[in-house]
Write a structure and sequence with these properties.
Layout (H helix, E strand, L loop, with lengths): L1 E3 L8 H7 L6 E9 L1 H9 L4 H15 L5 E4 L2 E5 L3 E7 L5 E3 L8 H16 L14 E6 L22 E9 L5 E10 L5 H15 L2
Parallel strand pairs: 5-7, 7-8
Antiparallel strand pairs: 1-4, 2-9, 3-4, 5-6, 8-9
Helix pairs in contact: 3-5
């Protein structure tokens, strides 16, 4: 379900109209996330760390309203729920785009994720299913690289307002602290750095629980 945003009474109307004209309206930020507690918790629960922090990402995405905004036919809609399309690696080093339904319940979300991972790993090609809606986050993990910046391949002619979130290699300091690089790219017509900071703060708080 989605709701039409009242553009005329939106305090960011001018910002939206300005940035939506750009050939490249996305901006990106890269930062370091503390994942020490989250990694320990995932191992204590006997679950995948990837699935654990993917779920925390999606809880934060669904918490921060601006991450649920999407542009459809020059109008802005607010989705009730955002799902995730994550790149899933296969044994032959190709990947496919997944579609994982969000649930605030970790066990339900984990079951959805493992089912979709198995499906992708038993198919070939990039697009193995339809993506009928844009209530998605585009998600990727690059666990081999501790990156300090990141860019995305994009078609400027394809209408896209889905945020893109990526994680890098987990690094371990001498004192045992674990960190990961995190990249967030978002449509500037829908949000600013302030809103990204809200998401980051929410995500880090969830990782620390």
């Amino acid at each position: 379900m989605k709701t039409l945003l009242d553009l005329e009474n939106w305090n960011r109307k001018e910002h939206f109209l300005f940035f939506k004209q750009f050939e490249e309206p996305f901006f990106g930020l890269t930062l370091e996330i503390d994942c020490t507690k989250a990694y320990e918790t995932s191992k204590q629960r006997g679950t995948s760390f990837f699935v654990y922090y993917l779920h925390k990402t999606m809880v934060a995405v669904n918490t921060i309203e601006s991450f649920r905004y999407r542009i459809i036919n020059d109008a802005v809609y607010i989705y009730d729920t955002i799902d995730v399309s994550a790149t899933i690696l296969r044994e032959d080093q190709t990947f496919g785009f997944s579609l994982i339904e969000y649930s605030p319940d970790f066990e339900v979300f984990a079951a959805n994720t493992f089912q979709e991972i198995e499906r992708i790993q038993n198919t070939s090609g990039l697009l193995t299913r339809d993506f009928p809606n844009d209530n998605l986050i585009h998600f990727s993990a690059v666990p081999w690289i501790n990156f300090s910046s990141l860019s995305h391949a994009r078609s400027y002619t394809f209408p896209d307002s889905c945020p893109k979130i990526s994680f890098g290699k987990m690094m371990i300091a001498n004192d045992g602290k674990r960190t990961m690089s995190m990249s967030v790219h978002a449509h500037h017509g829908l949000m600013d750095g302030f809103h990204v900071s809200q998401f980051i703060d929410c995500f880090q708080e969830l990782m620390n629980q």
